[in-house]
Amino acid sequence: MTVLLIAIGNAMRGDDGAAHRVIERLEPAPGVVVRGELQLLPELAPEVARADRVVFIDADVEADEPSIEPLEAGAGAGTPLVHTITPREIVLLAGKLYGFTGRAYLCRLPVADFDRDGLSPAAEAGVEKAVGLLREFIR
Amino acid sequence: MPERIVIQPVTRIEGHAKISIYLDDDGAVSSAQFHVTEFRGFEKLCEGRPFHEMPGLMSRVCGICPVSHILASSKACDNLLGVEVPRTAVQQRRMVNLAQLVQSHALSFFHLSAPDLLLGMDAPPEKRNVFGLVERDAEFARRGIRLRQFGQRIIELVGGKRIHPSWGAPGGVLRAIGEAERDEIRGWIPEALESAEIAIGRLKGVLDSMAIEIEHLGNFPTLFLGLVSPEGGLEYYDGVIRIVDGEGNAVAEGLDPQRYLTYLGEASEEWSFMKFPYYKPLGYPGGKYRVGPLARMNVARFAGTPRADREMHEFKQRSQGAVCESFHYHLARLIEILHAIERIEEITQDPDLLGSNIRARAGQNRNEGIGCSEAPRGTLFHHYQVDDNGLVRSANLLIATSQNNLAMNLAVEQAARYFVSGRSLQEGMLNRVEAAIRCFDPCLSCSTHALGQMPLVVELRDAGGALLDRARRG
Amino acid sequence: MSVKTLEIDGKMVTGMAGETIFSVAWEHGIHIPRLCHIGGISDVGACRLCMVEVEGQRKLQAACLTQIEEGMVVRTDTPRLKAHRKLIVELLMAERNHICAVCVANGACELQELARSMGIDHVRLRYRFPVFPVDTSNERFGMDHNRCVLCTRCVRVCDEVEGAHTWDVFGRGAGSRIISDLGEPWGASESCTGCGKCVQVCPTGALFDKGKTVAEMRKDRGFLKYIVTAREKKQWIG
Predict the structure, then answer these.
(1) How many CB atoms lie within 10 A of CB B100?
(2) Within a domain: residue C9?
(3) What are the pLDDT digits (tens) for A77-95?
(4) Which of C106, C137, C213 is the closest to B389 by Cβ?
């Protein structure tokens, strides 16, 4: 059983880096692979396909509390400005192109402020809770 | 009073750029602007730092194309040392620059533009995405990913790291590579060449159905600027600047990149943080020019590799003068991928690639250094002024996306004039306006990436300035 | 010389009278963290990272300055000590501008390694972002005060081993700064012999070889042992 944890965000942009803090806090565990990404790129799909379970950890402006929810494959709306694709798209590519049959989850983190160094107290509290949730999840 | 349609972020949390479209009294589009509201201030960070640190510091400008900044920065530092870089280091730098181009262009085409291009701009939005693409042809999508992996793998093999390689340095590079690395790179080549040609064939096959977009998404004469080799072929690492006009006539030949300030100016507008570079002899904004794949196809007379030369020859037939349709940035990008793979193969055949003389050593011999290379999105300049002790006094970066700023604004305006009508924003309009920007593949990856954020906001205002409609685009 | 027996972290160890807790612990494989100590020059107890608990004493003791005593019971790794050390490293990080990603010593820095070994993934204190100059007036070396932790290894090696005493400490508290001679630029120093010992012993990227780029600076801290042994025992061994 391999679990892949993928933290997404820009650590130089305040709370956008919350996911990276989460994976830094988690203790290494057998079968758990951790990756930190500025943003998602398509070549992550083959790696996702090799895992049994994958959790995307990302800051979410609409999250009030950290949560881990199942994530369905799907296409996201494209944007012409940011060269990134969504967790749902990665799951889609992993499934359709590389035979991923595992389960995907999204861990959303609450955020308050992107214009600062380090995390806001709200994001910090969210990270703390998310670490607890993920510890449970991995077990 | 003109009306205004705005595509814009309302707050920082919502986005990083906006498009404003202004309507006149009759409700027709009078003008449009593409605003960038991000401000980075990287040049300020460099002040007071030893110039030797610049390549490593500059690699942090961007997590998407760090290699381009490492190269331009290393070249500016070579200049401060006043040395000739050993051939082994030059070949490594060339190869990594081309690898960066392949992976960047592959992302732009296969993942960001292909849904629009291959499924059709009017395909329903729920189909016109990666999902639709994968449904149609999974193997094609896999090839796109493999091309990216090819580029990334070279950067990793040569640079030692995938994202911010500490590899380029003043006077050369930090690591020699061996036969194992070279042979692995060679192993990728046949499939990569095949993928590039398949993609070119696909795109050419749908261009006829895109006549309206080709005509109205940024089709206008401007100058084109880019590096060319001394013989006038495609060149990404060194060479001289060539500028052609919309008819394809040479406006300037053999310009020394070192003297860029004598022929390039930078204007600023209060409504955008991004500067507006222009060609000085023609003034502002008359001296607007485009850089990047389309510009390189227009300024170079030939590619210099057989497969790319065939495609480039055909490409140039699309117009009597220069190819002025911004839509053809897409095809230009694919031809560049093909050319880059051919060049990478050539470099792997050069025994000097594996040499151990990788760095020229010298003290500081100049107080001013300028480095210029072609990044995926266009010509990139790094310019450092350094005191006698090697500390940076000032740094100036002239980046591709800002050099395309005037043309992007025009392209947005042209797309809006043709596709936007009425007092509300429809999906088809927004998609076309965005597609105009996407031609240039501008990048704001240094922004935030949180879920639920809308990097781009579109607003529509009436003649009195009142908001008619607003759309947030994620 | 008499042999003393003591207990460190539950382990019975012996050392010679006059030896410090720090050196006896290291001889027995108990690696107490440190930043200002380096073998071959005197100890000053500046960094406070080697603080240990000694049974029967309320105050923490600097292991590098405290001599062993018969029957001493020492603990080097209690939760209290760990918390103290972590805070010290965080204070150092917050005090100046330590930006590992773009530092010449990235990957070969003792401060970075300490932070890594203590699991410091962020700093709880507000960064001060002071404005410090970089002195690159010397032909071969540079001094970046932004990365200095004021351990004074450079001051001591210059004074005790090279005999030049080019470096010293100027100012007080957080405003302290290493200066060459009487505050002249390094390149104008008349006492500096240009030997480079200070550069090699510096634990961070504060002192560096000019011309090194990001993550390129590597330091040879072993040389000091050779020189000191050669001087004391007339033998060239490390």
Answers:
(1) 26
(2) yes
(3) 555 555 667 899 899 999 9
(4) C137
Q: Are C201 and C154 in contact (CB under 8 A)?
A: yes
Give the separation between CA C173 and CA C180, rounded to whole angstroms.
18
Q: How many residues belong to chain C? A: 238
- Can you give the residue range of the structural domain that contains C138? 83-233
Closest residue by Cα to residue A56 from A77, A25, A87? A87
Instruction: Report helix, strand or coil for B145.
Output: helix
Q: What is the per-residue pLDDT for A14?
A: 85
Non-local CB neighbours of B289 within 8 Å, separated by 6+ positions = B222, B223, B224, B225, B243, B277, B278, B279, B295, B403, B406, B407
What is the predicted ipTM? 0.88
In terms of Cα–Cα distance, which of B80, B75, B55, B76 is closest to B66? B55
Q: Is the same domain home to C220 and C167?
A: yes
Query: Amino acid identity of C169?
Result: V
CATH number of the domain residue C40 falls in: 3.10.20.740
Task: Report the CATH number that the domain containing residue A81 is assigned in CATH.
Answer: 3.40.50.1450
Question: What residues of C are in contact with residue A119 (Cβ under 8 Å)?
Answer: 122
Sorted by sequence, the CB contacts under 8 Å of residue B349 that are 6+ apart come out as: none
pLDDT digits (tens, 9 = 90+) for A97-130: 999 999 999 999 998 888 777 889 999 999 999 9
Query: Which residues in chain B have their CB less than 8 angstroms from residue A93's CB?
Result: 130, 134, 141, 145
Closest chain C C-alpha to A80 CA, distance in angstroms: 30
Distance CA C9, CA C25 (A): 9
Q: State residue B1's pLDDT score.
A: 45
**Distance of alpha carbon B210 from alpha carbon B329, whole angstroms:** 14
- Please list every residue in chain A whose beta carbon sits closer than 8 Å to the beta carbon of residue C127: 117
Burial B412-447 (b: 16+ CB within 10 A, else e): bbbbbbbbbeeeebeeebbbbbbbbbbbbbbbbbbb
The number of beta carbons lying within 10 Å of the beta carbon of residue C175 is 8
Do residue A21 and residue C123 have CB atoms under 8 angstroms apart?
no
Is residue B183 domain-shared with residue B248, that is, in the same domain? no
The rounded Cα A78 to chain-centroid distance in angstroms is 19
Establish if B265 belongs to a structural domain: yes
Which tens digit of pLDDT belongs to each residue from B205-256?
Answer: 999 999 999 999 999 999 999 999 999 999 999 999 999 999 999 999 999 9
Residue listed under structure tokens 């046949």: B190
CA–CA dist A67, A24 (Å, integer): 18
Q: Do residues B88 and B207 share a domain?
A: yes
Of B111, B450, B473, Cβ closest to residue A58 = B450
Residue B10 CB burial class (10 angstroms; 0-12, 13-18, ≥19): middle
Domain that residue A121 falls in: 3-138
